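Q: For a teaching handout, I want to show students what a protein-ligand complex looks like in token form. Below are the inputs, and the small molecule is adenosine monophosphate. Please produce the holo structure.
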Amino acid sequence: MKALVAVKRVIDYNVKARVKSDGSGIDLAGVKMSMNPFDEIAVEEAVKLKEAGVVTEVVAVSIGASACQETLRTAMAMGADRGVLVETGAELEPIHVARLLKTLVDKEQPQLIFLGKQAIDDDAGQTGQMLAAMLRLPQATFASKVTVADGKAQVTRELDGGLQTLSLDLPAVVTVDLRLNSPRYVTLPNIMKAKKKPLETLDAATLGVDLAPRTRVLKVSEPKVRAGGVKVADVATLVAKLKNEAKVI
Ligand code: AMP
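A: Here is the structure, written as tokens, with adenosine monophosphate included.
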């Protein structure tokens, strides 16, 4: 059984994003980039299923600039067998990514398709759902446990205040949540091994996918700076401040 995992190259989660002075987006010049953290969890799950003998091949796919090769090498150092880069310089929206991933799923015919529940740069949380709809495949979002047996995946999903367990016919799309697993660290020997694994590059322009923009970013702004707190002398002053200054009671 083949598993396909979508891995996005995003601004590293430890880096504080700087908004460009004209408000047109985030300044990525000289900024550390890494694999989207939820995608690391997706790779880990696919690799674990391979180690358990359920999955026979793990294919990592990244869409974007040629620098995404680095993200694919990380996925391969974690245990993915090969990587596919769909290269494009286009500004991608989730619908474009879903369309491009669909062409790859049509070609590769995986039984399991793993994505992160969201990319930490656009916070869209749309790609997996769109992909499942385009492929007309069953989907389970926010997975916190995945088991595979008898041609079905059993996926436990995190809901607000509870858990739901679904059974899905395969092939299926699964988007993964934070508590599914703890991704392994990549070791130097595995980084070296990953350099020798196959990495195919496809030009997005040859895949017959409409990449025309559908939305336009009007403005990106920093969150409001929080005002410092004050110490109040007594409860009466606190209530007065809440009433007259904060106007919350
Ligand atoms: P989003 O809908 O943008 O929040 O992204 C959800 C998931 O879709 C990510 O966690 C990735 O698994 C996948 N994804 C989004 N964009 C890309 C991309 N450019 N390349 C590969 N996978 C992507």
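A: Two things your students might notice: The mean pLDDT is 96. The CA atoms of residues 99 and 209 lie 7 Å apart.
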